[in-house]
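Worked problem 6 (solution included).
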Amino acid sequence: MSYLATHLIRAFAVLLAGLVAAPALAAIPVKIYAQELVDRTVAQHPDLLVVVMHVTPPKGQDNVIIASNIGRIGKPGDEDDLRVISTGAPNLEVGHGGRYEVELIFRDAAGEPLGALGLVWPYRAGDDPAVFQRKAEQIRDALARRILNVANLMDPYPFEPLATTRTGAQKLVEEMAAKHPELTALALRAPTRGQAGLALLGSTFGRHGKKADADDMKIFDASEPATGLYSNGKRFGVDMQLHDAAGRKIGTMNVGYSFRPGDDKDALLARALSLRSEMQERIASAEALDDLDP
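Solution. The predicted structure is:
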């Protein structure tokens, strides 16, 4: 056997041994929902220089950057970040190089704290700091309407690799969310072409393409809505069947509203049922919810 052949065989044996001995790699999403929200924010506000989310992931011990437009993912929060989270008071300051930095408490749709949100704009002498704080609060509150909880931020995005947000269901969700700002959650599940069962086709909180589980199918088969309190009792949720304009059962619908002790649950349920009626009038069929680029 030639010298070259011998060394090729030895090299292959070493490589094979290394592959066998190497530990299995963790399944890390290429992109999480939090990063998608950052990317959307940057696209919607081209004057922003920096967007950073400081969050303690579920079961995590440390507050870290989980999403940003400047990298540094996994970087632990510093003293300023942790002070915002512990006190709720924002950090407001003129930074180096003509920048105005706002860091404020970050919340989900029910108002539960998630961590800190850092935003940076270009700054020139004479700019009104109150304008930057007001912009930051508006961005923070708009993001909150898209977040169920901290676990939601860590979802892979897209939740299913082939899922899309360009559906009739998502268009309807966006229209209803804009028309009814009191909503803290809205999701539609219906059949998707070429697959059995139901999947999430439109929502205010991502998870597009997520297959319906056993609890979802119970709602599909139930004649009465199911209600409950979520997010430490701060969100009143209603799950119910969804029909098209002709009255055919086509899927399920989830609605959420802010809740405080003493709020009238019957009134909130009635509001959810009214919203369902409003939406069903707009749905020609199950296929219409799965239409692309409607």
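Discussion: The longest helix spans residues 3-21.
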